[in-house]
Amino acid sequence: MATTTSYLSPGVYVEAINLGTSIGRTSSPLTGNLVFHDNEVLLDLADSTAAAPVSVAILSIDDVSVQDNQLSLLTLGRSAAMNARVLGGTVRFQGNRLTEWGGGPISGHVFGIRSIIAIGNQSTAQLLVAPTGSPRTIDQLNLVVG
Asked: What's the rounded mean pLDDT across residues 48-53?
């Protein structure tokens, strides 16, 4: 599997859209399924006056899989709400490392409408997994090291 390394500065962004088109098939519907795996992303706001609410934002009404990523946010006093925000119909957020230098109290926010699995992530600050208490929410073995 290929690994993508992205170094972002204010005003530069990477946008990924998966419409699930099926060329040559007329019976398969379009889907909002999204996979974000094996990436290394750095958002550097240290020498910038810009504010960024989030380093990586992923939104889909369908299934979202975010796994084995290295997400880094360098703010050094600049305003950034969090490193990652993932929202989807169903969400799998596993094996990610979220690192913030000078960031706030939240590393990431993961929200699933129908179900969510958040397992084995490591973060500098708190990882919010919602909804909590639902039988369809698994929030285990996530480690805060900051």
From this structure: 68
How far is Cα 10 from Cα 78, in angstroms, rounded to an integer?
12
Q: pLDDT above 90 covers what percent of the chain? A: 20
Whole-prediction pTM: 0.76
DSSP string, 36-84: EESEEEEEE-TT----EEEEEEEE-SSEEEEES-EEEEE-TTS-EEEEE
Residue 23 confidence (pLDDT) above 70: no
Alpha-carbon torsion angle 14, 17, 105, 77, nearest 10: 20
What whole-number distance in Å separates Cα of residue 36 and Cα of residue 80?
A: 21
Structure tokens at 48: 């910038």
